Amino acid sequence: MPLQEGSWMMPKPGHKVSWLWRASSKFTIAAIGLSSKFWIEWLNRVKVHNRETLYNMIERRPKGQGLLTVCNHTSCMDDPLIWGTLRPRILRIRNCMRWTSAAEDICFSNRVHALLFSLGQVFPLKRGDGVYQKGVDFSIEQLDLGSWCHFFPEGETIFINPRQGLMEQTLIIFFKPGIGRIISECKKTPIVLPIWHVG
């Protein structure tokens, strides 16, 4: 099944993007990122282990080396809230921020939502279309350009995993076939960094 009309608004990887798109995307990413930072770090208490490892992978990985992060999925607000833990500098630089996928039937249900999520560097995946679809191809192209892509592998199923509890009891994130295809088909194998969050 193809994506519904109007779902795909992302510029083609590697092609020149208009200044209006770049400016709008930068504003969208910064506004949502800084709002998430306010929510997660100033209105709540958060503890991050190995934060420097993520910072180094985002800012200091070899030029042209893609970064693929994967994370457990517990709510529809996982992205963008988990990125509220990043440095404000990263949140303001569009080229440093992640590309991520979202369910087409939820986040790309109309043209306004599609535009907002596209400007926020989110691309649609169609549930049930398997690993050979436009969104997966797009992420491979972004990683080949040295970008950062993030996936919630549990989100490839029909549900968000609501399990909470001790890390030892729930630390089972299977790399779904889509993640395997992405890693294997990149021209240059990306750095793969798993992330785990609770609360």
TrEMBL record:
It comes from the Eukaryota. It is a peripheral membrane protein. Residues 67-199 form the Phospholipid/glycerol acyltransferase domain. SUPFAM superfamilies: Glycerol-3-phosphate (1)-acyltransferase (SSF69593). Keywords: Acyltransferase, Lipid metabolism, Membrane, Mitochondrion, Mitochondrion inner membrane, Mitochondrion outer membrane, Transferase. GO terms for cellular component: mitochondrial inner membrane; mitochondrial outer membrane. Its main location: mitochondrion. InterPro entries: Plipid/glycerol_acylTrfase, Tafazzin. The keyword Signal does not apply. Pfam families: Acyltransferase (PF01553). It comes from Elysia chlorotica. Transmembrane segments: none annotated. Belongs to the taffazin family. It catalyses: 1,2-di-(9Z-octadecenoyl)-sn-glycero-3-phosphocholine + 1-hexadecanoyl-sn-glycero-3-phosphocholine = 1-hexadecanoyl-2-(9Z-octadecenoyl)-sn-glycero-3-phosphocholine + 1-(9Z-octadecenoyl)-sn-glycero-3-phosphocholine; 1'-[1,2-diacyl-sn-glycero-3-phospho],3'-[1-acyl-sn-glycero-3-phospho]-glycerol + a 1,2-diacyl-sn-glycero-3-phosphocholine = a cardiolipin + a 1-acyl-sn-glycero-3-phosphocholine. The keyword Membrane applies. It is found in: Mitochondrion inner membrane; Mitochondrion outer membrane. GO terms for biological process: cardiolipin acyl-chain remodeling; inner mitochondrial membrane organization. GO terms for molecular function: 1-acylglycerophosphocholine O-acyltransferase activity. This is Tafazzin family protein.
